[in-house]
Q: What sequence folds into this?
């Protein structure tokens, strides 16, 4: 049986390690019964965790040229991280590695948030203030999850 | 040797984060705090990763990848930590490290009467100096990166 690639959540972390945006896929949309999955309070910890371990990574790296952590593999899920040149991090938690999703999310962020002259750099991204970004992200995740479920 | 498939370093820590064994092969850079920070990065990930796991999945931390290297992690039931740094193309080593713990570490270290455990549990375990253990590590890790 083919393993389904399911996105569970998406997070944007600022360059200073604060949580800018998070979206957790509602449990009722999953076909598999995974029980109660409410990690909304823990998203803040993800943001500071990723920021902290990237600093430790600079010391641990055994090669002369260092780079940021891109994928964290765990039993049952993986966390992919895309770090932009300005140190904003896009993170997706999924059942397997998802190709190209974070790059598209970054492109969307640049268009809808980065080029928005009214958006303050330290502002949190919310559906009521930035619907063009948040609606598009939710739509991208739903499209991805539906397309993998139908296979 | 192709750098994406190479073995770089191997660490073993006791349950308190004291380094018991270290070996390197193709390391280019060595930070003065790399012993401490390697254990720290892994202990942060192993405690935090299960929090974000969907409830019916274990979520135990296994490895992470950067553009330059991959870090593999295994913790034994008795909380010895095994950390391997390799090239990015090396596949996950969870099963191999579990076998290593059972077939090499336990017989050569735990069951070795020449390896003296301190009387006080809070004291750090001594560094492993056994040549035979070092040779066993060398042959094991090279098998891991060269397996097809």
A:
């Amino acid at each position: 049986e083919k393993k389904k690639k399911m996105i569970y959540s998406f997070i944007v972390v600022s360059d200073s390690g604060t949580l800018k945006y998070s979206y957790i896929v509602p449990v009722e949309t999953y076909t598999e019964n995974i029980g109660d999955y409410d990690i909304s309070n823990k998203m803040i910890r993800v943001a500071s965790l990723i920021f902290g371990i990237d600093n430790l990574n600079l010391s641990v790296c055994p090669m002369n040229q260092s780079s940021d952590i891109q994928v964290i593999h765990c039993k049952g899920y993986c966390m992919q991280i895309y770090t932009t040149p300005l140190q904003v991090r896009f993170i997706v938690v999924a059942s397997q590695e998802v190709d190209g999703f974070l790059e598209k999310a970054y492109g969307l962020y640049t268009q809808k948030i980065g080029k928005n002259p009214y958006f303050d750099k330290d502002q949190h991204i919310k559906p009521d203030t930035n619907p063009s970004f948040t609606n598009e992200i939710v739509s991208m995740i739903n499209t991805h999850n539906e397309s993998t479920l139908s296979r | 040797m192709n750098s994406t498939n190479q073995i770089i370093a191997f660490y073993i820590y006791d349950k308190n984060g004291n380094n018991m064994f270290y070996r390197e092969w193709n390391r280019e850079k060595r930070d003065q705090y790399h012993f401490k920070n390697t254990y720290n990065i892994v202990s942060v990930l192993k405690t935090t990763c299960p929090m974000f796991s969907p409830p019916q999945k274990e979520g135990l931390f296994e490895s992470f990848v950067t553009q330059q290297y991959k870090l593999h992690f295994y913790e034994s039931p008795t909380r010895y930590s095994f950390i391997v740094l390799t090239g990015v193309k090396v596949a996950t080593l969870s099963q191999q490290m579990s076998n290593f713990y059972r077939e090499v570490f336990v017989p050569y270290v735990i069951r070795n009467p020449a390896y003296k455990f301190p009387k006080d549990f809070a004291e750090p375990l001594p560094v492993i100096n056994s040549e035979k253990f070092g040779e066993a590590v060398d042959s094991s890790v090279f098998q891991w990166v060269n397996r097809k």
In short: The interface with chain A takes residues 8-9, 24, 27-31, 33-34, 37-38, 40-41, 44-45, 48-69, 71, 85, 92 of chain B (CB under 8 Å). The first helix of chain B runs from residue 34 to 48.
